[in-house]
């Protein structure tokens, strides 16, 4: 394959072939007053590479990076340690430059990687079948809702109030175009999620119930109970997970009655990266639902000589065959992020993931105990994994801003997540991972104590 | 029971007001191993020529069109677990759906077995 730019000769040959005198002649139809005459307003014409680098460095110094602060932000994106070998492996040219595995004869490595990734996700989620990844957790959430509509032929969606509000927003946005009716709710600041309220909203028109596990406030629902209620009504249970490390400590949703399990895979291998690119994980428990799944699947097979090989399978549901019948408008997967996930997961192994989860929870428990001792701080949760909600005697958003000025990134205020919801002003979501030190916890506790006194 | 054929390689058995629709042996042979069939739900109203079912083989995915207008009374649920029935018994057990015929005049435009054979020989 050649990846060479056009030469003048190539260009002339093409113009001669189509009978155009010049490239400009091709754009004859564009009215002349629509052409850009001068520089774009507000943009400098050009700068030297050195000047641009200097400018960008100056801008980047305005950031307070996670690694440079006592850092407690989570809410769907978590700071974890990513081994250096992950980055090394994903940057190998064979992986980094491979774009799309439509050509199995030159993409066996990519396809095998995706197959193994799918196997890891399916095992992590307790599901039968996982796809080769989607763009991120929030868009995967919409895909699950759309899929539930295809399976049940119903159009009423019940969202848990404790679903990450950005995920709920993506679902609402997409539903505008599909006429799905979304029944949502606001989160309640109680120690345990309002599962009774959620179950009460399920009816015989409901296609699916969407719950987050652990939920956006860090709480854990009894999934099996919600699954039973959903199934009794003929609806599917969709479970969202934004912190896959948690599944090293808590039961996989697929083993608790979930029909579709999806989530954000960023925690494993991917890094915070200022918000993207991230990694949507998606899996189902019932093999019969495989044809309604979005995205691509990689399958294992044997060739004519009986040798093991890998192929993209069920391609009729994807965009390149029968485009109008595709199950999703997503026509690729987050290949490199999936590779990073897979490499990190392989390095961890079963025991490593369990140990990592235990360490996250241990430090989070220490943090919750310590922070609960700060006057003016109440820990909301009875149960949590590595993220929990604090109720402060004061506006959490302001306190977060003040503490950031002091080099402490204290967490995510609930007002930031739910800007319109009343009564959440004092809520602060705090995440702790293996990268959090006991010194960091002490720094946060002291800073909060000072601010609240 | 008269059997009619379409140029889209569907067959239609007519029994009173009810028609049974499948794809022909010629069609299944062209498709190769059938791996999935999606049949319409009971109660679906189909216009003549509307997309009625989907058949996927290892080689291709194709729509099956309603050869005549009508209301679906039954989809062949056996195909859900045994799509290969389309290969082994295209003319019989591999039927796709039954419908109540809306307009019997529409049958006039279809081929009989002899005409269909001639049609296939010409392909």
Description of the structure:
- The complex is a heterodimer of chains A (453) and B (123).
- Chain A has helices at 8-18, 23-26, 49-60, 84-90, 93-96, 108-125, 137-152, 165-175, 195-200, 223-232, 335-372, 396-405, 414-417, 438-452; strands spanning 70-71, 129-130, 156-159, 181-183, 206-212, 236-241, 260-264, 280-284, 297-302, 308-313, 377-379, 387-392, 408-409, 412-413, 427-431.
- Chain A folds into 2 domains: 84-344, Type I PLP-dependent aspartate aminotransferase-like (Major domain) (Aspartate Aminotransferase, domain 2, 3-Layer(aba) Sandwich); 350-452, Aspartate Aminotransferase, domain 1, CATH 3.90.1150.
- In chain A, a hairpin with a 5-residue loop joins β9 (297-302) and β10 (308-313).
- Chain A is an alpha/beta fold.
- Chain B has a single domain (3-106), classed as RNA polymerase II/Efflux pump adaptor protein, barrel-sandwich hybrid domain (OB fold (Dihydrolipoamide Acetyltransferase, E2P), Beta Barrel).
- In chain B, strands 1-2-3-9-8-5 form a 6-stranded antiparallel sheet.
- The longest helix of chain B has 9 residues, at 113-121.
- Chain B has 123 residues and is α+β, with helices and mostly antiparallel strands.
- Chain B has helices spanning 25-31, 78-81, 85-88, 113-121; strands at 3-5, 10-15, 18-23, 34-38, 45-46, 51-57, 61-65, 70-75, 97-101.
- Chain B has 4 helices and 9 strands.
- Chain B is globular and about 35 Å long.
- The chains are: A alpha/beta (453), B alpha+beta (123).
- Chains A and B meet through loops of A and loops of B.
- Chain B: The glycine cleavage system is composed of four proteins: P, T, L and H.
- Chain B: Belongs to the GcvH family.
- Chain B: Keywords: Lipoyl.
């Amino acid at each position: 394959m050649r990846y060479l730019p056009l030469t003048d000769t190539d260009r002339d040959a093409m113009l001669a072939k189509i009978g155009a005198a010049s490239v400009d002649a091709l754009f004859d139809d564009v009215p002349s007053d629509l052409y850009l005459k001068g520089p774009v307003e507000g943009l400098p014409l050009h700068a030297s590479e050195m000047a641009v680098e200097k400018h960008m460095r100056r801008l980047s110094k305005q950031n307070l990076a996670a690694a440079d602060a006592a850092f407690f932000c989570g809410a769907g994106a978590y700071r974890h340690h990513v081994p250096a070998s992950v980055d090394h492996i994903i940057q190998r040219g064979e992986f980094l430059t491979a774009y799309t595995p439509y050509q199995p004869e030159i993409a066996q490595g990519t396809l095998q990687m995706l197959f193994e990734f799918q196997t890891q996700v399916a095992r992590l989620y307790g599901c039968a079948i996982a796809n080769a990844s989607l763009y991120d957790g929030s868009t995967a959430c919409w895909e699950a809702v759309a899929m539930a509509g295809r399976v049940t032929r119903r159009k009423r969606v019940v969202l848990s109030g404790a679903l990450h509000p950005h995920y709920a927003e993506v679902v609402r946005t997409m539903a505008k175009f599909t006429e799905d009716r979304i029944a949502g709710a606001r989160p309640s600041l109680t120690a345990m999620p309002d599962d009774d309220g959620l179950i009460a909203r399920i009816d015989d028109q409901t296609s699916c119930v969407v719950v987050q596990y652990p939920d956006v406030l860090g709480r854990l629902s009894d999934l099996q109970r919600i699954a039973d209620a959903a199934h009794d009504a003929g609806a599917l249970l969709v479970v969202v997970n934004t912190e896959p490390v948690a599944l090293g400590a808590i039961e996989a949703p697929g083993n608790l009655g979930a029909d579709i399990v999806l989530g954000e895979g960023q925690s494993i291998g991917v890094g915070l990266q200022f918000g993207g690119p991230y990694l949507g994980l998606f899996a189902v428990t019932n093999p019969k639902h495989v044809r309604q799944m979005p995205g691509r699947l990689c399958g294992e097979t044997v060739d004519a000589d009986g040798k093991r090989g890998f192929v993209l399978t069920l391609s009729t549901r994807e965009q390149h065959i029968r485009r109008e019948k595709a199950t999703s408008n997503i026509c690729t997967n987050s290949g490199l992020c999936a590779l990073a996930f897979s490499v990190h997961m392989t390095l961890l192994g079963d025991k490593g993931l369990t140990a990592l989860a235990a360490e996250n929870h241990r430090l989070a428990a220490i943090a919750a105990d310590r922070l609960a001792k700060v006057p003016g701080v109440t820990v909301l949760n009875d149960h949590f994994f590595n993220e929990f909600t604090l109720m402060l005697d004061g506006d959490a958003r302001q306190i977060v801003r003040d503490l950031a000025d002091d080099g402490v990134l204290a967490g995510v205020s609930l007002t930031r997540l739910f800007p319109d919801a009343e009564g959440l002003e004092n809520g602060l979501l705090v995440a702790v991972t293996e990268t959090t030190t006991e010194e960091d916890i002490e720094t946060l506790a002291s800073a909060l104590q000072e601010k609240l006194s | 029971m008269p059997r009619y054929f379409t140029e889209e390689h569907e067959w239609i058995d007519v029994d009173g007001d009810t028609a049974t629709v499948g794809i022909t042996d010629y069609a299944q042979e062209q498709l190769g191993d059938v791996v999935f069939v999606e049949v319409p739900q009971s109660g679906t109203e189909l216009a003549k020529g509307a997309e009625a079912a989907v058949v996927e083989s290892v080689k291709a995915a194709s729509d099956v069109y309603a050869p005549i207008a009508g209301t679906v009374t039954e989809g062949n649920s056996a195909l859900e677990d045994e799509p290969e029935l389309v290969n082994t018994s295209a003319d019989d057990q591999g039927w796709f759906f039954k419908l109540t015929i809306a307009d019997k005049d529409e049958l006039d435009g279809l081929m009989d077995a002899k005409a269909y054979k001639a049609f296939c020989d010409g392909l």
